[in-house]
Amino acid sequence: MTHADTADRADVLLMLLADSRLPTGAHTQSGGLEPALLDGMPESAIDNLLRVRLATVTLVEAGTAVVARSMVLRGGTEDLRRCDTAWRARTASAALRENATVLGRGYLRLLQGLWPDAPAVIAASGVRNLCRAVVLGVAAAAGGLDAGRLARLIGYDDVQSVCAAALKLAPADPVAAARRVLALDEPIDEMACLVEDLEEPEEIPAAAAPMIERWAEQHAVAERRLFRA
């Protein structure tokens, strides 16, 4: 396989993982938008929410995924639990941790179907309840996705989750939602640049978002909700 073939394959994987139609449960996510709106956040603050997420919870998740990928490529698949533990230590909300575990199972099931014989996938399958970020790191290692693309994927996915949910929770022109995603191209790139060279769990950023975590806890016990989180 030539370098061009490898790059093309990575690009296809990038597009595949960015597709909300994957059978992973991603369509159940609002990126914290639903609980924020229910708690009284005005629709005009959605852009601020997106930027705060990129600087906190998304940064931590992207860093975790990059480190997990690095560990797998270095043959450290037995250390995936260390990476998962590092992410959990940086995520105070039990609701966010549980949601990431559920999504992690969905993504792992996808990887088991795509690359059942890949050593990284086999190793991840032997560790219970890995978070979504770690499993995405395994996916990147198994599919040839570089660290920069992986971090940008996570940034894009987080922004797109909020923007797609906004069309259901606060209906507006879908073109405006697409503009909102494009307007965050630079912040997504800046976030990715901060984490794309990380290799060890201790290097994963610790960026708290108390309000986002409080909203997640409230949403976990809400009786009426459209999205899981």
Molecular structure report:
This protein is mainly alpha-helical and 229 residues long. The protein has 12 helices and no strands. The longest helix is centred in the C-terminal third of the chain and has 23 residues. It is globular, with a radius of gyration of 17 Å. The protein starts with a helix and ends in a 9-residue tail after the last helix. The mean pLDDT is 92.
Query: What is the strand content?
Result: under 5%
Main pleated-sheet profile: none
N→C terminal distance: 41 Å
Number of helices: 12
Number of strands: 0
Mean pLDDT: 92
Helix content: 55-70%
- What is the C-alpha radius of gyration, as a whole number of Å? 17 Å
Order of helices and strands: HHHHHHHHHHHH
How is this fold's topology laid out?
Layout: H1 3-17, H2 33-38, H3 46-55, H4 57-73, H5 80-89, H6 94-114, H7 119-125, H8 132-143, H9 147-169, H10 174-183, H11 185-195, H12 210-220
Helix pairs in contact: 3-4, 3-9, 4-5, 4-8, 4-9, 4-11, 6-8, 7-8, 9-10, 9-11
Task: Summarize the structure in short.
With about 230 residues, the chain is mainly alpha-helical. The chain has 12 helices and no strands.
